[in-house]
């Protein structure tokens, strides 16, 4: 016999056995007859209603035009299902209520690696190896940042040439981000979109955003670390494609970047790839098998 309208209080499927993310937009997440539903077109003559298997998914992402009832939040909290409000196709991450998954393995592993100076630099070197395509012998973060910065400058130039964009160098004024030229504005907007995707990936694994291995000062340092792993393959691809498009159509660069980011996120399954990359850089496959954590990448 079910206990109460929310079902068995102890019925909770571990997140490791659940499906991944469920994307919903333009509707109301609500509870009907004790079950979670997503109602679209409530005010129309032909509304549609889908029952949501909330116990079998790890995270529900609510896109534009969506609302959620208090009853739905109670149901999600009871079963440990995450929920976040995001932009179209994950190009923004606005908020995530504290409905965390019932796991701590990723967070504990991250804290373990971050808290040991030798392991921390090993993870940072692994990240640089993924970004640069080779393992550098250097162990000083400032040196690694300098090498990476030099290579990124060349990559900006190559990407601009590939897309037929006039490139005058990277220029970013935090106080006035719109004061730069069109390609730089596109990079700024694309970076914001990719960081939103990284935030969703970090949230879905209950990892710890402040504990970055390369970035240090931000409360979203680990999010920035993961976003940077996709800078060459995703961020700059989005930015320069949108910048080129801006020369052909009459539209704002922000809107063009959002549309391009949404298309790339869907086609390349970017958020899923980020989740896999988080597990890779934290070497989650070594947890519990006694493998040495101090090895170089």
TrEMBL record:
One Pfam family of this chain: Cas_Cas1
Cofactor(s) in the UniProt record: Mg(2+); Mn(2+)
Example of a GO MF term: endonuclease activity
EC numbers on record: 3.1.-.-
Residues reported to bind Mn(2+): 148, 215, 228
Keywords for this protein: Antiviral defense, DNA-binding, Endonuclease, Hydrolase, Magnesium, Manganese, Metal-binding, Nuclease
Main EC class the enzyme belongs to: hydrolase
HAMAP family named in the record: Cas1
Role summary: CRISPR (clustered regularly interspaced short palindromic repeat), is an adaptive immune system that provides protection against mobile genetic elements (viruses, transposable elements and conjugative plasmids). CRISPR clusters contain spacers, sequences complementary to antecedent mobile elements, and target invading nucleic acids. CRISPR clusters are transcribed and processed into CRISPR RNA (crRNA). Acts as a dsDNA endonuclease. Involved in the integration of spacer DNA into the CRISPR cassette.
Similarity remark: Belongs to the CRISPR-associated endonuclease Cas1 family.
Summary of subunit composition and partner proteins: Homodimer, forms a heterotetramer with a Cas2 homodimer.
The protein, known as: CRISPR-associated endonuclease Cas1
Organism: Variovorax defluvii
